[in-house]
Specification:
InterPro entries: SOD-like_Cu/Zn_dom_sf, SOD_Cu/Zn_/chaperone, SOD_Cu/Zn_BS, SOD_Cu_Zn_dom. The chain is mainly beta and 152 residues long. 0% of the residues lie in helices and 37% in strands.
């Protein structure tokens, strides 16, 4: 089996929040990346917006330093089955304890090469669910966790 590129992000809570965890990105080739997120400290039985943001900078207390959604192709914000930012991902769904363990497949992004390269960008979890309609970012509320994506 080929050794495909991989990256990881360790998410830390923003000021006053408790969300944290790990997100792995496994480049499957052909513009597909498998994302595996394991997070804790989220609202129980809830959905949270989940995006790759353009800047790999989580230094601001509210993670505003991560900028907007990763969107090198200039698409509108939206769900995976329509025009969308490369950084748009499905909402995270939590269990009764506020934990999420999800696997999703992203199209059009890569780990370590090309215009869709997510390495050096940030992963952000939001307080509210993404509505997949509101522009430019889905009205998903405060940024509650942030981590920089680094090649492994």
């Amino acid at each position: 089996m080929m050794n495909m590129p991989m990256a990881m992000a360790t998410l830390s809570p923003t000021q006053g929040q408790n969300a944290r965890g790990m997100v792995g990105f496994h480049d499957m080739g052909g513009g597909q990346v498998m994302v595996h997120a394991r997070l804790t400290g989220l609202a129980p039985n809830a959905e949270h917006g989940f995006h790759v943001h353009e800047k790999g900078d989580c230094s601001a207390p509210d993670a505003s330093s991560a900028g907007g959604h990763f969107n090198p192709s200039g698409q509108p914000h939206g769900p995976q089955d329509a025009a969308h930012h490369m950084g748009d991902m499905p909402n995270l769904r939590t269990d009764a304890n506020g934990n999420a363990d999800v696997r999703i497949m992203l199209q059009g992004v890569s780990v370590g090469s090309g215009a869709g390269d997510i390495v050096g960008r940030a992963v952000v979890v939001h307080a509210q669910p993404d509505d997949y309609r509101s522009q430019p970012a889905g009205n998903s509320g405060a940024r509650i966790a942030c981590g920089v994506i680094a090649r492994r």
